[in-house]
Amino acid sequence: MPSFGDPNARILLLGLAPAAHGANRTGRMFTGDRSGDWLFAALHRVGLANRAESVAADDGLALRDVYIAATVRCAPPDNKPTTDERDRCLNFFTRELALLEQVRVIVVLGGFAYQALWRTLGADGVALPRPRPRFAHGLEVPTERATVLGCYHPSQQNTFTGRLTEPMLDAVLARAIVLASAVDV
């Protein structure tokens, strides 16, 4: 499943894998499923998307200063990617991240994406804090490549239970915008 967004983005959203009944059906990450409903509505609220919903790859959605990628490239069985699938797909994400030269903030959507990003950055020789900080919503880890922000995945399990609320998601995205806009001294 191809990633998409602004190729000059300063913010990267890293998800798990294409959803079988969303991205796998529509041809675009987070499009046509409930996770995407939450994500695109939030991106629109904070000014990173021109519309609050996405139902098809050709529906006119445009992202500003944000790019969306996944750690696993194809829809996994039962919508649950394995670490083996993650590891086999990491070389694709590694090459993609290298092309996104303007990225200053990487928002990881869930612990699975956080682990994949950590492996990718480490393999690229990025100096990382040891021990690795434990994933948490709102986690902020500055690295020489980009600041990593943790965000619970906008899955139905998290949104229906209130583990992730709209204000929580909006706050992470707003923080990403602030960090991406910060001027180096």
Topology of this protein?
Elements (H helix, E strand, L loop, with lengths): L3 E2 L5 E5 L7 H4 L7 H12 L20 E5 L12 H17 L5 E5 L1 H13 L16 E3 L4 E5 L4 H5 L5 H16 L4
Parallel strand pairs: 2-3, 2-4, 4-6
Antiparallel strand pairs: 1-3, 5-6
What this model shows, in words?
This protein is α/β, with parallel strands linked by helices. It has a single domain (4-181), classed as Uracil-DNA Glycosylase, subunit E (3-Layer(aba) Sandwich), CATH 3.40.470.10. 36% of the residues lie in helices and 14% in strands. It has six helices and six strands, in the order ββααβαβαββαα. The protein has helices at residues 23-26, 34-45, 83-99, 111-123, 156-160, 166-181; strands at residues 4-5, 11-15, 66-70, 105-109, 140-142, 147-151. The protein has a six-stranded mixed beta sheet, with helices on both faces. β5 and β6 form a beta hairpin. The longest helix has 17 residues, at 83-99. It is globular, with a radius of gyration of 15 Å. The protein starts with a strand and ends with a helix. The mean pLDDT is 85.
- Tell me the overall shape: globular
Please give the order of strands in the largest beta sheet.
1-3-2-4-6-5
| Major sheet attributes | 6 strands, mixed
Number of helices: 6
Count of strand segments: 6
CATH class annotation = Alpha Beta
Distance between the termini: 38 Å
- The CATH homologous superfamily corresponds to Uracil-DNA glycosylase-like domain
pLDDT < 50 stretches: none
| CATH-assigned fold name | Uracil-DNA Glycosylase, subunit E
Class per helix and strand makeup: alpha/beta
SSE sequence, one letter per element: EEHHEHEHEEHH
Radius of gyration: 15 Å
